[in-house]
Structure to design on (305 residues):
């Protein structure tokens, strides 16, 4: 029996671990298969306060983990495969084998950026391929950039990236955007943004860093090369919430609903980070809500005696 189990080990979960461990709650953290979360897939992080010269994403996670460990967090590198939130203590099944119990639960399983699924894309992730304009746009000052997608995220990222890029090309697989009218208009009015319609990315080009894209026109079947130094994949995110489905309130896209801080629809279950945040998706906002979840869990346990 644990006072707190934290599921997910990105900045939200690790911050919750630091706070709950320092509150003597001996948290158990179940790290998940992508231990450390999305930061482990990035290179330089320049916008996390406290690192004036920037820090590598994996290093930041390693440091947070060491800090959580120092105060007594117990880590289990495994996946949660099942939960039962219908009664307390909550039952958490790990790797389909062991079941552990918790008086409170912090869900920080994050969201995964959807990717195109190309080998070249995963090889160059963090080396020109990115899923976060706010995080990485700054690295492409005065360079040509491509943004993949036709939804609001793609329009928002492309518009934001014009602050840095010499030119932004939006590559969309159809000839109609999915984005809302207002976001479309904004992007279309921007002189730095060009559109490549009916186009699919076949390959991200470059050995160590991105140099361009090979595109296929899905109407004419022609291929073409587009020179660019940055590729931002903006084809949506999927919150990692499938194991909680049907047991906790979520929005239409599967993000966990929170209110009054990090409280979910199940008393004693708190959610922090991208799993409950389709808007900001930053390491620092995830860490902030991780702190909130830890304090919310501590108060809940205190109130429960
Ligand atoms: P989305 O609306 O699902 O759009 C995803 C886009 O990516 C679509 O245009 C889709 O093409 C394309 N796509 C999907 N899979 C692809 C693939 N394998 N290859 C190429 N293209 C692919 O996702 P989103 O833009 O991230 O938005 C998610 C939600 O957040 C939406 O409800 C959106 O309104 C909201 N949002 C709002 C704002 C805002 O208001 N400021 C900003 C961002 C997001 P198709 O169109 O052909 O399906």
């Amino acid at each position: 029996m644990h006072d707190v189990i934290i599921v997910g080990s990105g900045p939200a979960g690790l911050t919750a671990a630091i706070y709950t461990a320092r509150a003597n709650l001996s948290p158990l953290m179940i790290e998940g298969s992508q231990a450390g979360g999305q930061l482990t897939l990035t290179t330089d992080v320049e916008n996390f306060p406290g690192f004036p010269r920037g820090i590598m994403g994996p290093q930041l996670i390693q440091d947070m983990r060491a800090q959580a460990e120092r105060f007594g967090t117990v880590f289990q590198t495994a996946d949660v495969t099942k939960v039962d939130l219908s009664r307390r203590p909550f039952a958490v099944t790990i790797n389909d084998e062991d079941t552990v119990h918790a008086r409170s639960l912090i869900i920080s399983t994050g969201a995964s950026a959807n990717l195109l699924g190309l080998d070249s894309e995963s090889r160059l992730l963090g080396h020109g391929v990115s899923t976060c304009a706010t995080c990485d746009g700054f690295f492409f000052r005065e360079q040509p950039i491509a943004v993949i997608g036709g939804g609001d995220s793609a329009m928002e990222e492309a518009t934001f990236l014009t602050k840095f890029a010499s030119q932004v090309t939006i590559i969309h697989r159809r000839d109609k955007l999915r984005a809302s009218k207002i976001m479309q208009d904004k992007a279309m009015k921007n002189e730095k943004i060009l559109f490549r319609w009916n186009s699919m990315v076949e390959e991200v080009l470059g050995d160590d860093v991105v140099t361009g894209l090979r595109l296929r026109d899905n109407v004419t079947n022609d291929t073409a090369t587009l020179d660019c130094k940055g590729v931002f994949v903006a084809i949506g995110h999927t919150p990692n919430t499938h194991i909680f489905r049907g047991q906790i309130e979520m929005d239409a896209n599967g993000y966990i609903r929170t209110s009054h801080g990090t409280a979910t629809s199940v008393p004693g279950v708190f959610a922090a980070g991208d799993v409950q945040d389709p808007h900001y998706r930053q390491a620092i906002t995830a860490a902030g809500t991780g702190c909130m979840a830890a304090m919310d869990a501590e108060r809940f346990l205190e109130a429960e005696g």
About this structure: The mean pLDDT is 96.
